[in-house]
Amino acid sequence: MLLRPYTPDDWHRLCEIHDRARIGELRAAGLEAAYLTLEQTAENEGLFDGAVTVAVLDGEVQGFAAVRDGELTWLYVIPHMQGRGIGRALLRHAIDACDGDIAAEVLLGNDAALQLYRSEGFAIERKVDGRLAGNERFAASGHYLRRGASGVARPPSDG
Fold first, then answer.
1. pTM of the full predicted structure?
2. Could you give the CA distance from residue 49 to residue 28 in angstroms, rounded to a whole number?
3. In a 3-state reduction of DSSP, which class is residue 9?
4. Which of 104, 139, 150, 109 is nearest to 124 (CA)?
5. CATH number, domain 2-147, options 3.40.50.300, 3.30.110.30, 3.40.630.30, 3.90.1150.10
6. What are the average pLDDT values for consecutive 10-residue runs of the chain, which has 159 residues?
7. How many of the other CB atoms lie within 10 Å of CB of 16?
8. Which percentage of the chain shows pLDDT scores above 70?
9. Alpha-carbon gap, residue 45 to 65, rounded angstroms
10. Across the chain, where does the E strand assignment appear?
């Protein structure tokens, strides 16, 4: 597997990956009606405000991740390739990019993502209730996760 920086030539594949994976993520959270495409949300949600990395396997981009200011803001793998280590490789790359001190959010119901993050040293810091990023018409709940630079969860912050 090759991890490399995003290039504009990757755009259409990122849309395909996001759009296929996002619907499943939202379905698991009971928010399928909130679905929007990557084309509809990338700018508003700041996909390119940080570093975007793609994972290439079998000659094709199979997943992507984005990191900004110590937070993993995006992580998607095309559904038929999930469970093959692509998400884990992207997550570890993000952890390294943040010197091990990194945060992420996971929608309630996205048990596969939660399990992945926890297996890499993240811990739930708090439950978050609010509006769904990218489609704020919908209420959503999730977990705010953090991993400290030592490879273990940091104690909860006061803020």
1. 0.91
2. 27
3. helix
4. 104
5. 3.40.630.30
6. 98 98 94 95 93 97 97 97 97 95 96 95 95 89 91 51
7. 13
8. 94
9. 13
10. 2-5, 51-57, 60-68, 71-77, 102-107, 123-131, 139-147
Report how far Cα 14 is from the mean position of its chain's Cα atoms: 13
Domains in the chain: boundaries: 2-147
The half-sphere exposure of 68 on its side-chain side, counting CA atoms within 13 A, is: 11
pLDDT at 159: 43
Q: Give the amino acid at 93.
A: H
Query: What residue type is assigned to position 97 of the chain?
Result: A
Block residue for tokens 């997550």: 91
Nearest of 81, 90, 96, 71 to residue 2 by alpha carbon? 90
Q: Are 45 and 134 in contact (CB under 8 A)?
A: yes
Question: Which residues does residue 144 pair with via DSSP β-bridges, in sequence order?
Answer: 105, 126
